[in-house]
Amino acid sequence: MHKRGKSNAICTLHTNHTKKYYRTCLHTPFHWFIYIIFAKTFCFALSTFLQVKSLSMMNSSDPPFYEIYKTLIEEGLGKAQKPIIDKPSIIQECELPMIDLSKLRLGGVEREECMEDIAKASREWGFFQVMNHGIPMEVLEEIRLEEVNVFQRPFVEKIGEKFLNLSPGSYRWGTPSATCIHQLSWSEALHISLEDISGSLTGTPLSSTVEQYSELVLKLAQKLAEILAEKLGYKSTFFQETCVPSSCYLRMNRYPPCPISPGLFGLMPHTDSDFLTILSQDEVGGLQLVKDGKWIAVKPNPQALVINIGDFFQAWSNGIYKSVEHRVVANEHAERFSTAFFVCPIKDAVIQICGEPPKYRPFSYQEYRRQVHKDVKNLGQKVGLARFLVGAT
Ligand SMILES: O=C(O)CCC(=O)C(=O)O
Hints:
The protein folds into 2 domains: 2-57, no CATH class; 87-353, B-lactam Antibiotic, Isopenicillin N Synthase, Chain (Jelly Rolls), CATH 2.60.120. Helices cover 42% and strands 18% of the residues. The chain is built from 11 helices and 15 strands. It has helices spanning 2-25, 29-59, 65-79, 108-124, 137-152, 155-158, 194-197, 205-231, 238-242, 311-316, 365-379; strands spanning 92-94, 98-100, 127-131, 171-173, 188-193, 249-255, 265-270, 276-281, 287-291, 294-298, 305-309, 326-329, 336-343, 350-351, 363-364. Strand 9 (287-291) and strand 10 form a beta hairpin. The chain crosses the membrane at residues 30-50. It holds the Pfam family DIOX_N. Belongs to the iron/ascorbate-dependent oxidoreductase family.
């Protein structure tokens, strides 16, 4: 016991001495010199790393989705009880009703049948596709090329205030207001108001391509809208008078590959607020819509144009034509491009409801947009037409 106690005491003494010795040694000028060199090298390496990273970010055209939404994504994937989007194998792929518009020129029964097909698809699907639509393939290819060029620009340039001389806020990416992973859209978009095309963009290659495309697409949209009105028993020039170029806009969409498994939205589920939307897309696919209560995937056809009914047409037709919820699912490997043309009425034109008894109260586009913005801001989502039902508070 005694021996062991003595040896313990010697040990403790030795340890204390060793500690003291090292403490003294580690504070010699030589050691301070080493520390400073080490700290300087570390700072230099860190700043070089950050510079290289920010340089590569500056040159990269991709928005920094992962860097900015990292917490949201990691928390969301950790918490999610089931995948954000059902597995592709669960979602059925379908071909939208295809309507050959060349039949309209034939007149007689064929024209009548074609008009009925358009109305039937708008009642039952809210979506259809058209071929022989009058937009030459070269024009579709040109708009796609412009789109690729625009999105290939460095990200820092795209978020710049003066990007392409467009109105502020024309370039958008992700979902700045997202508070959870379900509200995140893995895409970037360029909103081009046709007013910009005749204003600050005049004379640029983008403006002439967009102008040519928009003119043809608006003519097509007006033709389809008149047919849909006629099928409800209204022969009117309402659409020509209220959906003019300056009230319409074009949205170029790019969906970068999304490496996050098991998949995120390229564009969150939504309905369009306009009268009609005309969409041209590449061959990648990703557009999905609700049919009979289930999500189905649309088989892409780059030669055809996809037409869908917006909220305003649903209200105008007293609920007969359907504004259907749709979304885009991001692809894990391929990037996807699409161009949507939104046919909107002038902002203070009040729409009448064509049908008895009217389901909705009359309202203007401006009033509708304001309500949508307010709901998105306050509730995180669009409430839409339900707010304008007769008797809604
Ligand atoms: O890219 C698509 O297929 C759909 C685009 C869309 O829904 C939109 O831009 O609102």
